[in-house]
Structure prediction request, 191 residues.
Amino acid sequence: MAEAERIIGTPDTPEAAGTEPERGETAPPRGRRRIAVLFAVAAFAYTLDLVSKLLVVAKLEHHAPIEVFGDWLEFHAIRNPGAAFGFGAAFTVIFTMIAAAVIVVIARLARKLYSLPWAIALGMLLGGALGNLTDRIFRSPGIFQGEVVDFIAPKGFAVFNLADSAIVCGGILIVLLSFRGLDPDGTVHKD
Prediction:
C-alpha cells in the first residue's frame, strides 16, 4: 500500500509542500484536489453500468441476442462467474476481494490527487470496479460469489459489459499519462 501511495500521489504534509521539485520535474500545481471529479466520473460510470445491467436482465436475458451491427456486434446476455474470457470461474471470491481492494486503494489515495486526467482515469477504474463488485455481491448464486452480467458481444471476442469498458479505458489512460510523464499529484517528469 505504501508503494501505491508513493506512485499515485504526494504526501499532504507541510514539509512536502515546501520541497523543491527534482531535476527534470515541474512543481505540482497549487490548486484544488480532484476528488470531486474522480467521484463524479466513478458515479457516472457506475450508474451507466448498473442501469444497462438492469435493462439487460429485464429485457434480454433468456431471449435471443439482438444484432447491433450484423453479425459483427450483438447484445447477448450471459452470466460470467470468472474474469475476462470466462477464465477463473472457480475464483469468484478472489475476484471480489481484488475489486474491493482496488476500490479501497483508489478511495484512500484520492486525497492526494491533483491531476484532472488522473482523476478521470481513476474515476473510470473506480466506477467499473464498483459495477462488477455490485454483481459479485448481490447476484446469484450468492454473496461474494455472484456472476457478472455481460452483454456486449463483438464477433470473435469476449462478451463484456460497461464496467469492463470503463476499467479498460481507465487503464489505457493511466498508461498514456505515465508515458507522458504526468503523475497523479500534477508533477510532470521530463525524461
Observations:
- The first strand starts at residue 25 and ends at 26.
- Helices lie at 2-8, 14-17, 35-59, 92-109, 116-138, 162-180.
- The chain has six helices and five strands.
- The chain has a mean pLDDT of 83.
